[in-house]
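Example 148, ligand DQA.
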Amino acid sequence: MAKILVIHGPNLNLLGTREVDVYGKVTIDEINSELEKLAASKNVSLTIVQSNHEGEIVELIGKAKGVYGAILINPAAYTHTSVAIRDAISAVGIPTVEVHLSNIYAREEFRHESLIAPVARGQVSGFGIMSYLLGLEAAISIMMMEKR
Ligand code: DQA
């Protein structure tokens, strides 16, 4: 069965109570359960990890080659700072889709730059939980197309 690695970056474990005016009331468990439902309907298996540690995310990505057909990542604050995560994605060459709950381009200026976007196949930003579901659809389609 095709496998996708889903990575939630720092502070996303706090969704539901964190800045609800920006991120809404959705919890990480709700997001994960919707992702699992969508994946099951497409016969895809997910490994879902949340980490507050940059090095841990780098290691996860580094070990993903040969195991996962695609990566879905919300790098959270590391989006704007992490050359290490960007380099890991670039190094493994696994098709990666970047997602954000909020529209990062409509927020503070420091959020307008994503260091990850240039090495991702694409980005979905601003649709709340739908960003993850649209991102997963894209990751599955890319993975299936490139297997042929
Ligand atoms: C975020 C946007 C980032 O700027 C922020 O640091 C986050 C969450 C989002 O999903 O909207 O932690 O990635």
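Summary: Helices lie at 20-23, 28-41, 54-62, 83-92, 129-147.
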